[in-house]
Amino acid sequence: MFGGSTPTPTSTPTSTPTSTPTSTPTNPGSCTAPAWSATAVYTGGNQVSYANHTWQAKWWTQGETPGTTGEWGVWKDLGACSGTTPTTTPTSTPTTTPTGTPTGTPTTTPTGTPTTNPPSGKRIVGYFPEWGTYDRHFNVKNVQTSGAADKLTHLNYAFGNVTGGKCVIGDSYADYDKAFTAAESVDGVADSWDDPSGLRGNFNQLRKLKKLHPNLKIIWSFGGWTWSGGFGQAAANPAAFAQSCRALVEDPRWADVFDGIDIDWEYPGSCGLSCDTSPASAYKNLMAALRTSFGSDLVTSAITADGNPGGKMDKADYGGAAASVDWFLPMTYDYFGTWDAKGPTAPHSPLTSYPGIPIQGFDATTTVNALKAKGVPSSKILLGLGFYGRGWTGVTQAAPGGTATGAAPGTYEAGNEDYKVLKTKCPATGTVAGTAYGFCNGQWWSYDTPATIAGKLTYAKGQGLGGAFFWDLSGDTDNGELISAIRSNL
């Protein structure tokens, strides 16, 4: 999922995306942006020069070298440049000056409907990316105004970081320091700098959301595509790691906000952005330690969807860990994408196999069957859905399996686009393996629609699965088309 300094933006591709690491910092040339500094703090929108390219930060970051974290990384490559190395140092601290005058009067009078479980008792879990507050301008308030808060049973806040064997804050500015204006706030009341609680940022907005929806559970997710590199060290002393996580999640400043923890380790005993060499028992032991520390609070985990023999799912004891988790969130999306730049074009979230699928077994049905075979109860498996699409350009064939020249342009990342954009930019022209695709202007995109979600949830109910989850809330329409389809069909 969109990873951790993260993001895992979306989940980890099950076939490994390629990225081109840069080496030791080289002369960035005559780029007008300041030279990148390993010690400086950058927030979304900051630009730097590094390795003869200009880079723009997508969210808060410190110490992450531009060009080394791949598609899901914090740095967006704005292109090459040449000349003299800039010598200025970027500003290191996000400003804490209020952007608006705090006021105690709401600009609107929000009303909240207490969240209730779907009639079936199934879980509907949506990820909220902490970095949405930057370029995306997607705030917790949008979860309320779209109607999503009425339909969710659980919201996963992504991500906290894992480093030094501990759970740590991912982005302090977005998490608890940013001052939201009245117009940006869930309840229409601006953050006050003399509030006795001292809490601002997304955490305070989540607190306000829970006040309107007292049955909504909020879970703090740790790791993701970018921040999973620290799990190996954490697994070496799982009890100490679990204690650190409990202390952070239950910090007195926000103890009332969170109802548990979600672990997004990409991937134990296998490779994601970095490779892990932990033994197969490490994941089970880590989850058991978290259960001990968190007691009756929620302990969940986003996991690999690679259920092929010898694949990522065989590298850790997911069946043994099932006793410690409330549910698993297998990332049944990103099976295929533009890390294979020339194609073949293929749906990134197939429910089933189909003739011509590039890799047999890369489909949700295989994933679910593999987990069941390992002893995971159906009720502890949630079906994963993507609220975004993946696409190629330079395509001449409407049906899946065509060649391409590269990744199609996207608003934030090449080859990736939100559903809310694709529904009009490249409407669906066909379906395959239980998901949709659109062929338009030489581009080929795959994504789920309300109709394909309905079909996938028919499958989920037939398998006795515990519900559905999705990455992520910011990809849906302003009126929540996709989450409405989940609620209606689950």
From TrEMBL:
CDD domains: ChiC_BD (cd12215), GH18_chitinase (cd06548). It catalyses: Random endo-hydrolysis of N-acetyl-beta-D-glucosaminide (1->4)-beta-linkages in chitin and chitodextrins. SUPFAM superfamilies: (Trans)glycosidases, Carbohydrate binding domain, Chitinase insertion domain. GO terms for molecular function: hydrolase activity. Its EC number is 3.2.1.14. InterPro entries: CBM5/12, CBM_sf_5/12, Chitinase_II/V-like_cat, Chitinase_insertion_sf, GH, Glyco_hydro18_cat, Glyco_hydro_18_chit_AS, Glycosyl_Hydrlase_18. Residues 1-32, 82-122 are annotated as: Disordered. Keywords: Carbohydrate metabolism, Chitin degradation, Glycosidase, Hydrolase, Polysaccharide degradation. Residues 1-26, 82-121 have a biased composition (Low complexity). Residues 122-490 form the GH18 domain. Signal peptide: none annotated. Coiled coil: none annotated. PANTHER family: CHITINASE, CHITINASE 12-RELATED. Belongs to the glycosyl hydrolase 18 family. This is chitinase.
